[in-house]
Amino acid sequence: MSLAPRAVLVHRRTEYEELLARHGTHGQAAFFLSSRGRSIDEVARRHERTRQALRDVAAAVPLTWRSTRVERADLDRFLFAPEDVVVVVGQDGLVANAAKYLSGQPVVGIDTDPGRNPGVLVRHRCADTAALLRAATAAGGTVEALTMVEAVADDTQRLVALNEIYLGPPGHQTARYRLAPDGDGSPGEAQASSGVLVGTGTGATGWLRSLWLERGSAVPLPAPCDPRLLWFVREAWPSPATGTSQVSGELGRGQGLRLTVESDRIVVFGDGMEADALELTWGQSVRLGISATALRLVV
Q1: Which of 152, 174, 177, 180 has its CA 20 to 30 A from that of 122?
Q2: Where are the extended beta strands (E) located within 13-163?
Q3: Keywords for this entry (predicted)?
Q4: What DSSP designation does 117 have?
Q5: pTM value?
Q6: For residue 74, which of 51, 91, 97 has the smallest C-alpha distance?
Q7: 3-class DSSP state for residue 278?
């Protein structure tokens, strides 16, 4: 007998909850904000809107389904199952945070604060939840397959991301490595820089776009479902031992970018989740390319 679907509600702590965790009480948090010219009232109202949204979404889960909740900080320890329907309740960035831990489960994005969030990935309102859950499990339900980027190290460590993957030094030092197209057999160009960014069409509204604009790139930015990635080297440094001839490019399906580490430590993380990073050291290599897994966003 097949298992009933499970609704997994993904959320994160609100600003109000973070203030309470730091200051202990509402009064202490209010005093802290007032000393900086802010009022706690709006923070508390946004907190209540988020809590109410979670209650409304939970109430919309069919009675025959199973359900659970997971907080953003616990995503790397949560085991998603094939029959899950992931309901992200919060901001756009929370969808990206969850995406790297999924393997094809449908995702529903619920905006808890319409007008404050861009609503690129959290496109729906709480009142739409029941219909969206039915659509997520119905044959022929409408989903968008958003392209994701992956990094696969030579020791089989793997990391995927919805917006972008960053490879660079763990602090403010310089990263040293060799960069080359994957599979061309060349040793690659030795480079010293503040890191490399490889991004998708979903990430083209954020960090990737800022680099694209800074370079004045003639290559068009990809759309979220395009099987295409753009990559940029950040602040490459020319010297007698390091070059700057390969500082940007495009990757299609089946193409890859290979980076071989030539410094003590390079970290690889996706979508700002620095706490869940790969760590590479001297001589290790990593391949960047389009992931076989896409984010299935219910529309």
Answers
A1: 152
A2: 66-71, 84-90, 106-111, 143-146, 149-153, 158-161
A3: Kinase, Transferase
A4: B
A5: 0.90
A6: 97
A7: strand
